[in-house]
Amino acid sequence: MKKTMLKAAFFLSAGVWMTACGSSKQAAQAIDLTGEWNIVAVNGEKVQAANMPYIGLDMKGKKVYGNAGCNRMTGTFEADSLQPGKISFGQVGTTRMMCPDMDTENKVLQALNAVKGYAQTETGLNMTDAEGKAVLTLEKRETPVITLNDLAGEWVISAIYGVRVGKMDKTPFIAFDIAQKRVHGNAGCNIINGGFSQEEGKANSLKFSQMISTMMACPDMDTERQILEALGKVTGFSLNQEQAVALLDEAGTEVLTLTKNTDEPLTK
Fold this sequence. Notes:
Residues 1-19 form the signal peptide. The protein is α+β, with helices and mostly antiparallel strands. It has helices at 2-29, 103-114, 222-231, and strands at residues 35-42, 45-46, 54-58, 63-67, 72-79, 87-89, 93-94, 117-120, 124-128, 134-140, 153-160, 163-164, 173-177, 182-186, 191-197, 207-213, 236-239, 245-248, 254-260.
């Protein structure tokens, strides 16, 4: 009888322990990292910057993107499915613009290199180092709302992968005809024409199709080549921090930046 009671007590305590572990594991797994997060503090110091740095996490593709405070960044990460709460970032690349204040950006990039885990907070997430210290404090980023109808009209292609397009003989641009689901423009040398479509149920999806161009040769064809390649990778659009339209690839990387044309019409 005594042995039976001891066995029952053992299994009961073991069951409680397993339940507790399972609950803890489920709680960690319930943290959804998907989406974009403002970086509101670095190593406990509140971020004071004109452009709020942020990161976006593509859990399916294991890719990270965002802005470190000046430059756009892209890279990869690993999240351990067997150990919830573990994450580390691979090499993160950035564009090479110079801004008046590079201090915040340098701190953000250093902190990303130190990240080994994450933990949920009342207002968002903490990215932690190997000792569990919070090196980045994140809060969910509200993505500015933009619809397909907002794309109507002419847009100057002002940047490619975050690098500003220099002055050219012909301004690269793209114009959207929403009713006809057609686009036309200029890639910097040649006239381009084509169509676009959206995935059903995805209001911010965008895919160009049947894009054709004239065949003229110009002194600088490199910019045109980059624009045409980028158009082929576009899967969506949003507003970026500068309130310009960002054309995004599958990983959420801003491949082309569009600025509304407010000058003379570029279509001739």
